[in-house]
Design goal:
alpha/beta; Purple Acid Phosphatase, chain A, domain 2; 25% strand; 6-stranded mixed sheet; globular; 267 residues; 12 strands
Length: 267
């Protein structure tokens, strides 16, 4: 079973390249299930119901998120009406939404569980232990789906790597999001779990992690706050395809991709 996992979708450039890429990648890799991190999909900060609908209509089966999930206040009132949209499971009690979802493959009908966790190192807010809460959730989800995919949304590579080893042999894949910078350490861990520290950004790469360069440079150079706008240039599609064994729930392979519009034309 081939599962496509897409890194942080940033603004309209990210949504645009995503919609161009999905038909090509779905066919080329015989994708059965698709997950994308959507916390920056609306204007580069946050997500809205309309954007969720757009992404789901494009063929995505589950949307993960992270620290920007509540940036667009309108999502607070509707997140419970969108079961495919997740916020990190280990956020404080009392927040709306959910941290996991079970769907079915488009081709096979095989159940796939997605678990969204937030890391804690260098991350803001009152965040519960992703190791303990994640383990409890995986045990519960494995009763519904042999294949479990974990999105660990975090800043520190060490923490994401530790979570990968913590879940090794228990889930099909642990993939990192949040930094918008793709890492090339994709591999199968010793006990059979696919891992990548960060999938990277699906969005504009002529930027500073998705934001117009000049505004960021001015903030670094002067220390003055500047208005951040989502950049537009050089949109790229960042993702990984994990081939998972429905019997064991573990990974057979992981292939990372970072595709420009010209790359897509050649495929």
């Amino acid at each position: 079973m081939n599962i496509l996992i897409i890194g942080d979708v940033v603004g309209s450039p990210g949504r645009g390249i995503l919609k161009k890429a999905l038909p090509v990648v779905f066919e080329r890799h015989e994708v059965d299930y698709c997950i994308a991190n959507a916390e920056n999909a609306a204007g580069g900060f946050g997500v809205t119901k309309d954007v969720c609908d757009e992404l789901l209509d494009a063929g995505i089966d589950c949307l993960t998120s992270g620290n920007h999930i509540w940036d667009k206040k309108e999502i607070v009132g509707v997140v419970d009406l969108i079961p495919q949209l997740l916020r990190p499971l280990n956020y404080p009690d009392g927040q709306p939404g959910r941290g996991d979802h079970v769907g079915k493959g488009k081709r096979s009908g095989i159940p796939v569980a997605t678990l969204n966790l937030s890391c804690r190192v260098f991350m803001h807010g009152s965040i519960d232990d992703p190791f303990r809460m994640g383990s409890e959730a995986v045990k519960r989800l494995r009763k519904e789906a042999r294949i479990v995919i974990v999105d660990v949304h975090g800043e520190a590579s060490s923490e994401k790597t530790a979570l990968g080893h913590h879940f090794d042999g228990e889930v099909a894949a642990v993939v990192g999001t949040h930094t918008h910078v793709p890492t090339c350490d994709h591999r199968i861990l010793p006990k059979g779990t696919a891992y990548c520290t960060d999938l990277g950004m699906t969005g504009p790469y002529d930027s500073v992690i998705g934001v117009e360069k000049d505004a960021v440079l001015q903030r670094f150079l002067t220390g003055m706050r500047t208005r951040f706008e989502t950049a537009k240039g050089d949109p790229r599609f960042a993702a990984a395809v994990v081939s998972a064994d429905p019997e064991t729930g573990l990974a057979r392979s992981i292939e990372r991709m970072l595709l420009t519009a010209d790359d897509l034309k050649k495929l």
